[in-house]
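Hi F.,

I've been meaning to write this up properly since the lab meeting, where we talked about keeping a consistent format for the predictions we share between groups. The idea is simple: the sequence comes first, exactly as it goes in, then the structure tokens exactly as they come out, then a line or two of notes. No screenshots and no reformatting. I'm using this chain as the first example so we have something concrete to point to.
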Amino acid sequence: MSNTDFSGLRVAAFESRMAEDMTRLIERYGGQAFVAPSMEEVPLEDNHEVLAFGEDLLAGRVDLLLLLTGVGTKTMVDVLQTRYGSKPVVDALGRTIMVARGPKPRAALREFGLSPTIEVPEPNTWRDILTTLDREKPVNGLRLAVQEYGVANPELLEGLRQRGADVTRLPVYRWTLPRDVAPLQRVLDAIIDGHIDVVLITNAVQVDHAMQILSKPSRQVAFRAALARVVVASVGPTASERLRSYDFPIDFEPSHPKMGTLVKESAERSRALLQTKRTAST
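Output, unedited:
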């Protein structure tokens, strides 16, 4: 038995856009992959919130723009350009304090020849955002827009308001359940029935959508009990916060909040963790 791979363990994941990559990674590290998409990204093409924000942006009524995701940043600029044109939008963004939550919004800005004023370091949680702003750009009295990434973060919004910011939510896209939820249902059933050894969580919304599918309280209780007998690996603090909000266990986070690191370190640690959990539950 290798100490550096899954050695045949059954590994579930809820990756959507990168489902094939996740499957290959699990199999590369010796696991049996059970990957089912849990999210579908729906751009808000008729996005009145973004267009209204564009009016304020071009008029100089936005002091600070907080960018939470790369996809959301790119979509936001694309939507704005459909009405206001490329140069006016890029020029207005260049005059605005832009705070990027990690490298993905920074990379999206680079596509338009822009750079963030401030970048929030890993692990990029809402607490890290507030700490970075407190240190580098206190927001008291600023007109601040928050580009959201599917679901609002009430703790972040409240933290900004408590610091005296005039906060505007800027939803750019949202997540929905996949049109075909049967594969997700099958993987959740396999977890509840004891046919899965490891569960990998790479996004907080995956947890919400699993609970939507497990809509009956009895199924949610059964799922929570099943997680006590498997290894639950979370990609990072944001996903872990969501797991804890449902009182789900977290057995470990990887050294870096990346999918590849999550799978590699899960492969290295899962057998020992699984043995410990199942011995304790027995």
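Notes:
The radius of gyration is 21 Å.
Residues 37 and 250 are 21 Å apart (CA to CA).

If this format works for you, I'll send the rest the same way.

G.
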